[in-house]
Amino acid sequence: MVKQRGFTYLTALFIVAIIAGGLALIGEVWGTSSKREKEAELLFVGHQYRKAIERYYLSGVNQYPRALQDLIKDPRKPGTERYLRKLYPDPMTGKDEWGFVKGADGGIAGVYSLSEEKPLKISGFKVRDASFESAQKYSDWKFSHSVPAQAAAPGATPRFSADHRVP
To answer: Which residues of 46-63 are buried (b: 16+ CB within 10 A; e: fewer)?
Structure first.
């Protein structure tokens, strides 16, 4: 009888080890899936900010917003003009804080995540995001509006390259 108890005990330990390994694998798959969802949300939110900044810049005197709140209500205009419905938090950090790409006039020309994590997505970006392929961390993904040199001259009509078009 003593031999059977030892065998049953070892079988129970083996089953617990298999269950623990399976749970660890499930946790890893869930974590990767969650990170991919956050990446997709970062791409969406970043492009929302990029487009809003571009519309803000083009709707006035070619000036970048001084604060993200200016995208919700343009202080340059007497009425309420919105370029975004709401301010989005950074999906990677979960905070309302963003890094800013400064424009030539000192305003906000773009945003980027403050996350220092390494991205899962390293290829397969759209043309407008081609620079993301060499990124080592999420903070390297810069969602910014830039004015081409010929459009920056006084009196020139702004023109935008293919990487700033709305999909």
So the answer is: bbbbbbbbbbbbeeeebe
Helix (H) or strand (E) holding 32: helix 2-59
Helix (H) / strand (E) containing 154:
none
Q: Reduce the DSSP state of residue 144 to 3 states and report it.
A: strand
Strands (DSSP E) found in 68-149: 99-102, 108-112, 143-144
Element (H, E) at 122: none
The two structure tokens encoding residue 142 = 């810069």
Run of H or E including 3: helix 2-59
Tens digits of residue pLDDT in 38-77? 999 999 999 999 999 999 999 978 899 999 999 999 988 8
Report the alpha-carbon distance of residue 156 to residue 62 in Å, rounded: 11
- Distance, in Å, from the CA atom of 152 to the CA atom of 146, rounded to the nearest integer, reads 10
pTM: 0.73
Token pair of 62, please?
């070619």
